[in-house]
Structures
1.
Amino acid sequence: MSAEMQDAVYRRIVEQTTDAVIFADREGLIRIWNRGAEAVFGFPAAEALGQSLDIIIPEELRKRHWEGYKRAIEAGRTRLGSRVLVTRGLHRDGSRLYVDLSFAVIVDDEGRAEGSLAIGRNVTERYLADRALRKRVAELEGGGAPSG
């Protein structure tokens, strides 16, 4: 396969995957936003591209997010390694969601960070069901009658 064909396949993979694929440059401006990101966060690519990642980060998490982002860009890697993180996100309609995200710092051939990649999916329904189940188990293990 030629390099040109390989690049086209890579592009189609990113564009067509159902998972959100988001690449932000060193300053945290969105440069790649696929159909999966549109489905998860509700912003069409035309609205998201060129915007700060703040459009999908809840206000109360932004300070911590940007501190970690800056550290990762400076280090050329994330502290999470290959772990997936459940985090909060914002939908275009203002609703909050839980998202499974994996992160990577993308570096050039000289090892300089070009930006950050996040790949994720909306897990709000699963997260809330798990939380309700954990609460119910805790109530039962506590010996008390369930409330409500």
2.
Amino acid sequence: MAGLANERARVLSNEEVGPGLHVLSLESPGIAGSIRPGQFVHMRIPSLESHVLRRPFSVYAHDADAGILDILYQEVGSVTKLMPHMSDGFVELIGPVGNTWNSAARRALIVGGGVGAAPLFMLTEQLVASGSAVDVVLGAQTEKALVCRERYERLLGRNPECATDDGTYGRAGFCTSLVEERLREGTFGDGGPYEYVAVCGPVPLMRIVAGLAADAGVPCEVSMEKRMACGVGACLSCVVDTVDGKRRSCVDGPIFDAQEVVW
């Protein structure tokens, strides 16, 4: 929890990017300057100041020099359905919260399902900047929900491999078939195997990818984004069952070694 800040962040934009999907850009210099891939923020939503509990949001992207954070969110409940109306003003953030992806791999496979593609983007940026070879697989229900695809394409200089449940873009069906193929082929152009897999998305997706990575003998990390109340490890509402007992997603995670999770 070192470096945890409570910051008043200015709303810069709140753009609808897909059906029920929005990117909220915030000016938050302190958090933007210190956040690392995989970490998140706790937000107090305007008009809900009377609520004691904040809401956790993964950070999609950041610009440390400009002091800007991007948060991809989906309208899934009463709170997030209020958020599209946040066009200006300020929000209160606590962050950066949680641990970070633990990879310095030279060859990595990144797997994002739905909005789970967002918490992996900063990791992919880090790997690309370090000279690592990176493959990206994205999955969503439909083409319009693949809202992170273009940003990954610009970063990689090529299209990420995609699958949609309804077949409107890329492969028809779940993206796990693409992951299985990548791990089975398991090599880049220089003949080297994957050294690392990172996955974020629905629990069934992460469980399947974790199993595929284990079968291929490739280390895998997952982001366990549980419902959180306090966000600081006190309430025990976000526990994850692991081989070492119950761990708190907010402070012991959200990133876990996939082999340590009891699925």
3.
Amino acid sequence: MIRGFGVLEMLVALSLGLGILTVIIAHSADSARVDRKIAGNQERLEAIFHAVDTIKSDLNRCGMRLQEARPFCSIQPFASAAGAFSCSYGIADEPLQEAALRGQQALKVVAGESFKKDKPVLIYHAAGQTWEYNEIGYRLDGALVLKRPLQNDFAMNSTVVALKKVEYRYYPAQRALKRKVDDGNFQPLLEEVSDFYVTFFPDANSVLYRIEINKKEQVRGYIFLLNLV
């Protein structure tokens, strides 16, 4: 005769089953926490790498297409302050197809897509050491119409440079490093920043920056501004 499970045996079996289930649940919870921690660390590293790459990219372009004009223009491609810096560079340049006179607003230029509405421009003539800043009001076929009349005469083959300015600023209360392009708004570049430091060495045309994350990790960079040499 086959005897079924007794009450005591059933209780033992249930206890063992609950114990095994508890171990499985605890292990799963620990694994989930580990996975979340790994994913969080990976996301933080990717955010740091992205911020560093963006900073390096902007600094490597600082002063680009402005080398010829800098000796006679009041151009400062790089500026820094406590927890902030800015850099400017040209993203495209084109020669004037015909001379432009003072008071004129249309420039005869075969311009690419970088020369768009509201874009700031530098116009200069190296031989005559004549220059001025302006902004593009709109485009016509083969011409740029400026927002303001020219203040100077410019000979044919004078250079028109489409400018870009980027600014970085550390917001301690928000623990964020933010970036702004031209007249746009500051957008978060990196979160959980506990300190940001930058200094410029004019004799070496180089920049040292340091980003501190959560008062633990530090990222440092030393970059030569080759376009300022």
4.
Amino acid sequence: MSSKSDFYPDILLFGQLVEALTSDSKTFYDAAFRKDSNRHILGLFSINEDAAAYANLNTEEEIITKILNELDEIFDGQASEHYVKHIIQNWSKEPYIKGAYSYTFDNDQLETVDALKAPLDNKVYFAGEALSIDYQATVHGACQSGYAAVEQMLG
């Protein structure tokens, strides 16, 4: 969200720091922090149930209204007062993506990943960030699992 003023802190976590960084909480952050920019850009990062509160709304206008109302409550109306424009990237609405990245497993992670990595008829192999044990939810985890899939194919 673009703003006329930086009325917000560099990062706004909900709850305790450790809890916020290890849970499904939402985080507002200064998206221009330490960038060579004089723009005021407030980002929102939200996953799982917290993200559903936004992603399940029908229109971008409903989403931005909900976000502005939340921020106005925290910052005494300054969000709406300084709001300029927004961009929303709702990964759950992308038809071939349906989300941003994997997050947790209901069962044992190793068992689940091993089952997902099993090739089909030694012809179809699987890779992706969700199939990385050490670097799940990262680009380098996706790359690592891609290399592992190629090794499996050639092995």
